Fold each of these.
Amino acid sequence: MTQLSEFHSIQALGEALRTRRVSAAELAADALRAAREYADPNIFLHIDDALTLEQARAADQALAAGSAGPLTGIPVAHKDLFVTRGWRTTAASKMLAGYVSPFDAAVVDRWREAGTVSLGKLSCDEFAMGSGNENSAFGPVRNPWDPERIPGGSSGGSAAAVAAGLVLGATGTDTGGSVRQPAALCGVSGIKPTYGTVSRYGIIAYASSLDQAGPLARSARDLVPLLDAMSGFDPRDSTSLETCDGAANAPGRVQAAFDAAQAGFQAGGERPLSGLRIGVPREFFNEGLSADVGAAVEAALQVFESLGAVRVDVSLPRTRLSIPAYYVIAPAEASSNLSRYDGVRYGHRAAEYTDLFDMTSRSRSEGFGDEVRRRILVGSYVLSHGYYDAYYLQAQRVRRMIADDFRRVLAQDCDVIMGPVTPAVARRIGDNRQDPIADWLGDIYTLGVSLAGLPGMSIPCGFGGESGRMPIGLQLIGRYFDEGRLLALADRYQQATDWHQRIPGHA
Amino acid sequence: MALSEQDISRLARLSGLRLDSNDQTRARQELDRILGLIEELQAVDTTGVEPMAHPLAAHQDIALRLCDDTPDPASTPEQRDACMANAPAAHQGLFLVPTVIE
């Protein structure tokens, strides 16, 4: 029996599949068994063998017919924020327990068309609100590097599944860091592309002007086909882009940019990144940054320098303001988006009620968890009469100033920005239960990128914590539509280091 | 700025949420803390800065694309039933709710 755990990259597994050394169905059966037997029962919210094996058989047919692509037969799974036909979709909320979508999200469609085989649905923070996956109504997910600790969030199940080797790729969504932060805390690679490049159709909405899908995988090289396949214009999403600075927004764009960047690096020989200016924002190295994370990021920057890059000190003076700006804008949009859960058309309905309003408000109070209720209340407040200008519009003005800061630095001072993803390694499960706002402050290095709509990614760059065994992530932030070049830069780093190859239990 | 009990009741109503007295007390404490955090925005001089509604507005001139307001001709009663299959209470293509008009 072939085991998924024998393969550490999409390329290696893809070759084994295309040369027919492995069948997609055999592999899927093994992967399903591994997923069911995995020590953390909370990681998958729904597995359905028949649905997975049907996709695997389709992959085997494509492989037999010679029409297979780089992702045909590759085992993946989807964050439960993406609606799926067949598999239940809950957004990890009691509100949507048992919900079955009549259609597939655009990203789910695109990955299936590319030949991936889905193992099912992965846990996350309820409605993607959270940074630790503890806000799931169905129990916390454990970090594969230490089961006492969080995997990060909100795409915590996605990052943990990749780190545990249960899948070679997973979908995530990133509204304020929800791909990059769990990728960092679980020691995997993840990218949030430029807003508008990946369709939001079928992603359960949290904060629509910030929500963007992105993949998580073992390495930057694995992210290339995964991101490429999910990108592209979709008329069903009103913010989906038809073009990216003149290039068609379609599969092939990311791959072509990755290949072009690699060709340029190749010309540099021993110093492939010669001339590359890395902007290091001084505000990312503030007093809140823990020493282990700071040291790992510093060592990573030195690797980039050894490859020919130069370091430039830059300033993003409004970094700290990204926290209040985000925690006005995101809750405002959330309170509006989540008004659809009324206990009438779908979702939880209270058992007892008096009139229509009582039914709706009881249903919502029972169906939503603490963090979701908290953000809805904040959103209602900042949008209410008398506060709209002072909070919401003011936050949108600050948002523009933050975006302008990034634009100026990336236009004048540097070609890419690098820094930490998180102030510290993964904390213990339950640690911030008495202080729900504490987690918000930990989002400081990721929120600005989301507010500006820029592409950003996280790659493993070392270990820290008291045990010295908890992963640390390096954040790379590019110009608009720079996904392909970011992935190529990350790949050059991963050619020179082996952090991304470490697996839990063997670090 | 501290919120009053009336403020919390009003917010709960606006939010379509039902908070019991324990919830209210906790919500008040948490919201006071959160408002303290977002209060920092007030000190920023944003004179002359346009609010940014679209996430790519700092990069390019961009507006939301509108779609035609037309029904999907491919829609069938079966599709309607599939969409309504998740309704807590439905009858012959209608969503059931408590009596609104006596």
Amino acid sequence: MRNIFLFIRRYFNFVFFVVLQIAALYILFHYNKFHEAVFSGVANEITGTVGGRYSDVASYFSLKKTNDQLAKENTELRNELLSNIDRPDTTQRVIQDTVPYDTLGHYRKYVWRDAKVVNNSVSLPYNTLTINRGEKQGVQKNMGVISPGGVVGVVINTSNNFAVVMSLLHRQSRLAVSLKKTGESGQLSWDGVSPEVMTLKNIPKSAQVAIGDSVVTSPYGSYRFPQGIMVGTITDIIDDKSSFYVLKIKPSTNFFNVQYVSVVENLQKDEQAKLEEATKNVQ
Amino acid sequence: MSDMLRNTVRFVVFILVQEFVLFQIHPLHRFIVPYVYFLYILWLPFSMGRASLMLLSFVFGLTLDYFTQTPGLHAAACVLIAYLRPFVVNILLPQEGAEQNYKSPSPVSMGWAPYFLYVVVLTLVHNIYLVLLEWLQFGSFLYFLGKVLATSGISIMLILIAELLFFRKEKFRTNTA
């Protein structure tokens, strides 16, 4: 026993070094598996506050660009208003149903919340964004995040007033997308090389693809995003030996200057996930 | 300024510069990531015990990790160079007792050539370990090698610029004074 104590005292520095290394590596690998880490709630709150101060200053530099973008989006939305559409047929009248709710059973499926990006990275292999909405504002893990340009990523961690979003430019990011024109679904990932190039796999060779085609969120696979949200455009088609294409995609979101985003909540997610889980258990 | 205050200010400044200046630079190339923050560990005084040096480095690395959302990655690399620092200093010090005559490692206290070697060795160790941890999860050997070399080159260049810009005057202390 005495020898053990002597040994520890003699090699205290080395033992302490090993302990700290193990602690660091444990946090690292634990985090990558579960997207959670020790004290991440408190740390999020602090780094989010600092990031918020920084982005308050930095946002002035791109004010004009942001304004242009918002104005453009406003016009697009205004164009979609029903009041723009005239009814050419005057022989028919709309009759208001006396029942106040829709008997066909229409219900709300998606809720949108706006948020501001307070911290953002594009130069690392694991890029994340921090937004200034958290649990108190109803943001939870696994919600989708969208910018005026297109899909941004998925919420992976939340604290009271902030949330961390795994950007599409993250090595562990996987997104189910489909071709806008023909509807074939595949999986979008990022290899960490260039923020301008993402990889889309599992599109069968039977699909007709052309450079410049749009890629949108898939109706299957992910219940985080509504169907048909813009993700990117095809920039290159690689024809490998298998029966699937490998497509290079340029994301439509500009990750370098994204400032305002919307968080999408799917109100039926739990029900769908529960049903699918139950079915899996039956098989 | 006392050592404690000086190092606390440096702690904050290095973290903020790394996160909000160097990590915000648009990527020139996938191999090039400008790391300078660990210069903080190289500048810590000689008089710190090895255990407290490692503990401080761990906290320092972890602080940066919380900004980049990679808890443990930078902390592990920082602890490694903090552990190796005393060995490298002992080998490279020009004469016995210099660590009593000067406060902290600098070109003045160690001489330009030994100090440069000290920076190169610890930068390489830091980057090799950091990229190795990334490489364990993905990438090829060529990626590993290229990233270590490119990142170390940029780091050493930036550290030299920092040394020239913020020249630290080191007073020669003797027992007689």
